[in-house]
Design a protein that fits this description.
The complex is a heterodimer of chains A (221) and B (390).
Chain A (H helix, E strand, L loop, with lengths): L1 H16 L2 H13 L4 H21 L5 H24 L6 E7 L7 H12 L2 E5 L6 H11 L3 E5 L7 H12 L7 E5 L5 H7 L3 E2 L3 H12 L8
Parallel strand pairs in A: 1-2, 1-3, 3-4, 4-5
Helix pairs in contact in A: 1-2, 1-3, 1-4, 2-4, 3-4, 4-5, 5-9, 6-7
Chain B lengths: L5 H9 L21 H11 L21 H7 L3 E5 L4 H8 L7 E2 L5 E6 L2 E6 L8 H6 L14 H11 L3 E5 L5 H9 L1 H10 L1 H26 L5 E5 L12 H20 L5 E5 L8 H7 L3 E3 L11 H8 L4 E6 L4 H4 L2 H15 L5 E5 L9 H14 L9
Parallel strand pairs in B: 1-5, 5-6, 6-7, 7-8, 8-9, 9-10
Antiparallel strand pairs in B: 2-3, 3-4
Helix pairs in contact in B: 6-9, 7-8, 7-9, 8-9, 9-10, 14-15
Classes of the chains: A alpha/beta (221), B alpha/beta (390).
């Protein structure tokens, strides 16, 4: 038990510190010792990333530290994702996400993806400069619970409303919750575009996603 | 106060004294500029033929070099002097296949995402993490005389006219943003944490190149310059791009050295452009010797607290910008624009030390009516003494 606790501690620290190679090595060690991949995920990796996210929100941690922690998380996820799928672990939900047409900004979106994956969502990343039709197609194909759209420029904000209209016209609007984000996005944008919510950072995005799906957050309990 | 020339107006405001009205700076650099589409709509509405020229002779940047009549109508009290990419680079790009990537002298470049809209995507040092890779990189020749060959004559002509303040802005001689261009923003931010020695070495290498070109630029300007513009975006919508501790240990010494280099060569005011909520670093900027802080992004965190900015730093800094481009200019009515300009002027204007400009470039979503409402409100509410009944 102590060995396992020590190993989970080391994995927590490696993810928290953004040590990708170290995190992968500890995870491999843990798997070899018979620790379930879900245990690595839920007992070490997610708490580590949540703590980074919490400190990001309170201004104790900044983008460089958050980005490397997310990268370490991603590196271990690449290792354990197939094992988790194999084990048939229930995912919380599916999110389709992308940066709207005419916009290539994606630093924030990358963080949101890692945090969502860490929280147990399956995330389909449509990338940057994504045309509205591609969002519609992805909803048909992946049947997500939530669609996330990012716009960094005021000149690409109108794409949010346009995409939501397209989703409506395709008869898919009531099948998904639509969440938006990006520097100029505010509650007013949500109302004008007809979205279901926005989040100012990646941690808040995870809470919001759980919220609109009616799943309780760890920090709510 | 009797009528001043534009240059007198700007210099007085920079000395933290009250000129006849709050100065305006528009159209003369990218961050105080107008993108081509809103500029053309404005010029057309005003009834004159739009200029076909771009800032930096660089179509992919998409920022207009406005015609003189438009600058006069906008009331801009400043005129700009810019550098250029080497003639060979401009020529190679002019002759490349249409819509293919634009590559600059640094080897970084932009892709056409939508017709006429270019975004930086080509990052030639994306994979670099070692000092050896910095040493091996084919850095641009900053001694290429074609970069600044036009500068002396342009600045001398503006100075001979004497009416306008002259602001010089060599393109993006900003160490952090140049590192982002070379590596990609998230990659370089990660390298600051993962490989701090490499990241620091890259910043110093870039700064040395900035200084070489800035040295030639300042030599060509001689005394014919009032404001030198540099910067680095350091803020996000809610916070800083990096911790104050990381800024102070890695980037601030680079900025301070660069500012010193400029200070030793010119008496011009130092204009520092930095987007986002940079509130926690303002004392650092003052300490480095920044005179003008831009763009005062009021939509970002504590930068909304204009009264606090003015009371804490109003004696040391001139604020430039503060007219919101996230909501007011693109989606407000002309009446809302007028009210916002009045509000901002009444807080930042008293005692001088404020220059009106949009927060960053006027984008394609800003109607010409709102651009005019902004400058007309300066005429209406920006005459000193501010806030007095008239």
């Amino acid at each position: 038990v102590t060995d396992k606790a020590t190993l989970l501690d080391r994995l927590y620290t490696a993810v928290f510190d953004g040590d990708a190679a170290g995190a992968v090595a500890v995870a491999k060690e843990g798997l070899a010792a018979g620790i379930a991949p879900t245990e690595l995920l839920f007992e070490a990796m997610i708490p580590a990333l949540e703590e980074v996210g919490r400190r990001f929100e309170t201004g104790e941690v900044f983008l460089p530290e958050m980005l490397i922690a997310a990268r370490a998380m991603q590196a271990v996820m690449d290792l354990i994702r197939p094992l988790i799928v194999q084990a048939g672990v229930e995912k919380i939900g599916t999110v389709v996400i992308g940066t709207v047409a005419g916009d290539i900004h994606d630093v924030g979106k990358k963080l949101v993806i890692v945090m969502l994956e860490g929280a147990g969502f399956e995330v389909i990343d449509l990338g940057i400069n994504v045309p509205g039709d591609t969002f519609v197609e992805a909803i048909r194909q992946h049947r997500p619970d939530v669609v996330g759209m990012s716009a960094f420029l005021t000149t690409t904000l109108p794409e949010l409303a346009r995409n939501i209209e397209l989703i409506e016209a395709a008869g898919l609007r009531d099948r998904v919750k639509i969440l938006i984000g990006g520097a100029p996005v505010t509650q007013l944008t949500v109302e004008q575009a007809g979205a279901d919510g926005f989040a100012p950072d990646a941690s808040a995005a995870v809470r919001l996603t759980k919220n609109v799906m009616g799943v309780s957050s760890a920090d709510d309990s | 106060v009797s009528e001043m020339t534009s240059r007198q107006r700007v210099l007085t405001a920079l000395q933290h004294r009250q000129p006849d009205r709050v100065p305006i700076i528009l159209g003369v650099s990218n961050a105080t500029g107008l993108k081509v589409k809103p500029y053309r709509r404005l010029a057309t509405m005003l009834g004159h033929a739009p200029s076909e020229r771009y800032l930096y002779e660089w179509p992919e940047l998409g920022t207009a070099a406005p015609d003189e009549q438009t600058l006069v109508r906008l009331g801009s009290d400043v005129r700009g002097v810019l550098d250029r990419e080497p003639a060979s680079v401009l020529e190679a790009n002019a002759n490349r296949p249409p819509h293919s990537d634009y590559i600059n002298s640094w080897g970084s470049g932009a892709t056409e995402v939508r017709p006429g809209e270019w975004f930086p995507t080509v990052c030639p040092m994306a994979a670099a993490t070692t000092v050896a890779e910095i040493e091996d990189y084919p850095w641009p020749d900053m001694d290429d005389p074609t970069r600044v060959a036009h500068v002396a004559a342009e600045a001398a002509a503006l100075a001979a006219d004497g009416g306008y303040a002259i602001m010089a802005t060599p393109w993006l001689l900003f160490p952090l943003e140049r590192a982002f261009a070379m590596q990609g923003m998230d990659t370089f931010l990660m390298n600051l944490a993962l490989y701090p020695d490499f990241a620091e070495a890259l910043l110093w290498k870039i700064e040395s190149l900035c200084k070489t070109l800035m040295g030639h630029f300042l030599e060509a300007l001689g005394d014919n310059v009032d404001i030198i513009k540099i910067g680095d975006d350091l803020g996000t919508q809610e916070s800083l791009l990096m911790s104050p501790a990381m800024y102070r240990s890695i980037l601030k010494p680079v900025h301070a050295d660069y500012v010193d280099f400029i200070r030793q060569r010119t008496g011009a005011a130092l204009f520092f452009h930095t987007d986002g909520d940079v509130f926690p670093l303002i004392d650092d900027f003052v300490e480095m010797g920044v005179d003008i802080l831009n763009p005062i992004q009021t939509s970002a965190g504590k930068m909304a607290n204009l009264a606090e900015l003015k009371s804490r730093w109003g004696d040391q800094l001139t604020f430039c910008g503060a007219i919101d481009t996230h909501r007011i200019l693109p989606t407000g009515t002309p009446e809302e624009v007028r009210d916002e300009v009045r509000r901002v002027i009444e807080i930042l204007g008293p005692g001088g030390g404020y220059m009106v400009s949009s927060v960053h470039t006027v984008m394609d979503d800003v109607p010409p009516e709102n651009i005019l409402a902004m400058v007309d409100a300066v005429d209406e509410f920006g005459k000193y003494p501010i806030g007095s009944p008239r």
